[in-house]
Amino acid sequence: MEISHLKPSILVLLFSLLTTLNVCGQGIAISVDEALAIFYQRNLDLIAAQYNIDQSRAEALIASAIPNPTFSFQLSELSRNLNKGSSAIGCNHNQNVSCGPAELFSFSQLIEVGGKRGLRIQSSGFATQAAESDFRDAERIFSNMVRDAFYELLQMQKNRWLAQEIVDHYQVISKANRLRLKSGDISESDFLRVRMEAMRAQSDLDNAQTAVDLAQANLAMILRWPDKSLQFEAKEQWPDLMNIGQNRPKEELISLALKQRPDLEADKLRAAQAEKELELARRLKYPDVNVTAGYVRDPSNNTLNSGFIGFSVPLPLFYQYQGETSKAGVNLNQSRLAAEQTELTIRNDVVSALAAWNSANKIVQRFQEGLLDDALTVRNSSELAYSKGATSVLDFIEAQRSYKIVTRDYYAAMINRTNAYFDLAKSLGVELNADKKAVTHPSPGVKTQ
């Protein structure tokens, strides 16, 4: 699997982000897809995973290589006399003339037997596929890590927007209360209680801004601190909740995950590789044959030119590679155990993610079915009644607090449902499309950017 398949969409997203950087001097709004694009460009872990794929492919080339032949050349019968006066047919029988040394040219080729090369090729092929599965698993995990940080920032921003809305609201109420205090419509203690709530709202706004700063720093750290990352503002973007099996039975989802999860696929591929390595270790006891052939020119011999052929075979008499076989067997057992442990983890992931999704989705539905509107209605009614003197200041403050709590809980529920959706997809091994529509869900009476 090549990382290059991500490049076209990444480049488009980065171009869009750079355009935004040029237009905005402060508060750079980015989408979750743009955050993912930055991450894929900068994250060293994914780059290292790609290097593992390249290394596996290089090892596959090494495993499939045929041993090179060996050429050798030798001179023999070297001495002071150099065969002077030899009676051989190739010499001139002159005591003062040397016949010259014997020359030997030979080629040797190692021939592997027992299908060792084929087993190495199959083993390296499984290793390459396992590395590619590891890369997909890295994408699966790291993508959700970026999404979690992005939606954490969005949640903190929503809390800040809520805190700012409440501060602005109390400013309006405080101005009206000053006039009512001067006219004697409210007591000074009621006026002070409202002013104290306004100061508390300002403190909440300060804390909300601090939480935003921390969330920005967390996202920047995950993105490897790109330029102006501390000015990033998360766009209010919610995923289109596609049908990824939320309503299917648990056992069906578990079966689906066991077929799709890349981490389990990688473990199974490594187990298959270990099986080939064990078979290869067993076949090491079948010795390889080294075939040699050559040509000899020997002037001092009655046969001037001659050829030869032969072979050599190591005899596994004392050691028959029991250690390699035992080591490969242990590696196979460990690989199978790792696959079984991953399968158990997947089952637990699916059950946990499905339960979290069902809970988070029901909570959001309760808010959207009227709880959020009810909190706003109670706040507005209490405020109207308080302005006319029909209710106490304590009831008014309690209504304001209830509205703040319900609205903040709604934001948290929306973020939890979004994270639960992506976690369920991650547990199932579902690859979600990168293109999402920017859908805004403003709360009644709350300002959005």
Give a quick set of tags describing it:
single chain; 449 residues; alpha+beta; elongated; two-stranded parallel sheet; disordered N terminus; disordered C terminus; Outer membrane efflux proteins (OEP)
Tell me about this structure.
The chain is an alpha+beta fold. The protein has one domain: Outer membrane efflux proteins (OEP) (Up-down Bundle), CATH 1.20.1600.10. Helices cover 63% and strands 9% of the residues. It contains nine helices and six strands. It has helices at residues 7-23, 32-42, 44-64, 116-182, 188-222, 250-260, 262-282, 322-387, 393-428, and strands spanning 28-30, 70-76, 102-111, 232-234, 289-297, 305-312. The strands form two sheets. A four-stranded antiparallel beta sheet has the order 2-3-5-6, with no helix packed on it. The chain has a two-stranded parallel sheet with strand order 1-4. A hairpin with a 7-residue loop joins strand 5 and strand 6 (305-312). The longest helix is centred in the first third of the chain and has 67 residues, at 116-182. Residues 1-25 and 434-449 have low confidence and may be disordered.
